[in-house]
Specification:
With 217 residues, the chain is α/β, with parallel strands linked by helices. It has 6 helices and 11 strands. Helix 1 crosses helix 2. The N and C termini lie far apart (35 Å).
C-alpha cells in the first residue's frame, strides 16, 4: 500500500493505493491549514480502510514546486512517518506539475501545467507527448500570467490551478489554447500514487535524509 501526500499548494490531496485500485482518497482546498488538517486526514483514511502505518510499502510526496509552507509541512510529515517505521519506509518525491499531467488527454502535442504560486504568479511546466505519456520539456518556471502567455506557442493545452485572472487571459488566445476543465485540472493524490508506484517498481526511491523540496523564486 502506498500513501500519497500532496500539500504543495492550497489544493491538498491524500490517497491510499494498493496497486490494483485507489483504496481511499480525499482532495480539498485548504485555507492554509495544512498543519492541523494533514495528520487527522491521513489517520482517517488509514482507519477507513483498516490499514496501519506498518502496512505501508512507501510514501509518495509532491516535492514541488509549490508554497514554502505547504511543501515544508508535507515533507516533514512524510519524513517523520517514514523514519518512525522499522525499517524506514522509502520516500518517492514526484514533481508537483507531473501529477496534473496524468489526467490530461493526449489531444494536442504540447501541454502546460500550472500551480498557484501566490502574488498573481504561477509555477508552470511544459510537456510534450512521449511513448510513456507526457514528458517534461525542461525545468518549471515561476511567472505571472502576462509573462506566461507569450510562452504558450499553440496549439497547446493548459491545465492545473487556473484562477479567474488566468482564465480571462487565456481566453484572449482563442483557438491557440485548449483550457482543461476544472475537474480535469484537479491535482489528485491518486495520480501521484500511480506515478510513485512506477518509480518504486524501477527502484527509483529517495532517502528521508536527502529528499528536499523544490522551490522556485
Amino acid at each position: 500500500m502506498i500513501l500519497a501526500i500532496d500539500t504543495a499548494t492550497r489544493a491538498t490531496s491524500v490517497a491510499l493505493h494498493d496497486g490494483q485500485q485507489i483504496a481511499a482518497e480525499m482532495t480539498w482546498l485548504t485555507e492554509n491549514y495544512h498543519t492541523v488538517e494533514l495528520a487527522p486526514t491521513v489517520a482517517g483514511l488509514l482507519g477507513r480502510v483498516g490499514v496501519r502505518p506498518a502496512d505501508l510499502a512507501a510514501i509518495a510526496l509532491a516535492k514541488g514546486p509549490g508554497s514554502f509552507t505547504g511543501l515544508r509541512i508535507g515533507m516533514s510529515f512524510a519524513k517523520g512517518l517514514a523514519l518512525s517505521s522499522s525499517p524506514p519506509l522509502p520516500l518517492i518525491g514526484v514533481p508537483t506539475l507531473d501529477i496534473i499531467t496524468v489526467a490530461q488527454p493526449r489531444v494536442l502535442g504540447r501541454l502546460c501545467a500550472v500551480a498557484q504560486a501566490g502574488r498573481g504568479r504561477v509555477n508552470a511546466g511544459f510537456y510534450r507527448q512521449g511513448p510513456e505519456g507526457w514528458e517534461a520539456e525542461g525545468d518549471p518556471v515561476i511567472v505571472n500570467w502576462d509573462d506566461l502567455l507569450p510562452l504558450l506557442e499553440g496549439p497547446i493545452q493548459v491545465c492545473g490551478e487556473i484562477d479567474r485572472a488566468g482564465y480571462e487571459r487565456l481566453q484572449t488566445l482563442g483557438d491557440r489554447v485548449m483550457i482543461a476543465s476544472p475537474a480535469a485540472s484537479l491535482r489528485r493524490a491518486g495520480f501521484l500514487a500511480e506515478l510513485a508506484r512506477r518509480r518504486l517498481a524501477l527502484g527509483v526511491v529517495d532517502e528521508a535524509a536527502t529528499l528536499a523540496p523544490l522551490y522556485l523564486h
